[in-house]
Amino acid sequence: MNCEKKQCPCPKTTCASHGKCCDCVVKHRTTDSLPFCLFLDNDGDKSVENYYRKLKLRFEKV
Is-contact 20 4, C-beta < 8 A? Predict the structure, then answer.
């Protein structure tokens, strides 16, 4: 499986996992947070709890 990504949307370009999707997902899984590329407007909070809160708000507006 090729886990390299040519264009990583994450603004943290100095991160050792930048552009290495598999490494990034593993890192975030161990810290109970989501990678930048999978997160809705996170207001700086990448926690899974905040993700669900934002997702809930998004669907309540529909």
Answer: yes
Alpha-carbon span 15 to 33, nearest angstrom: 15
Per-residue pLDDT of the chain (62 residues; tens, 9 = 90+): 567 766 888 888 999 988 888 899 899 889 888 788 877 776 777 788 888 888 888 888 76
pTM assigned to the model: 0.60
| Cβ–Cβ < 8 Å for 23, 3 | yes
Q: Rounded distance, CA 29 to CA 22, Å?
A: 11
> If DSSP codes are grouped into helix, strand and coil, which group holds residue 27?
helix
Biggest CA–CA distance in the chain, Å, is 38
Rounded distance between C-alpha atoms, residue 6 and residue 43, angstroms = 26
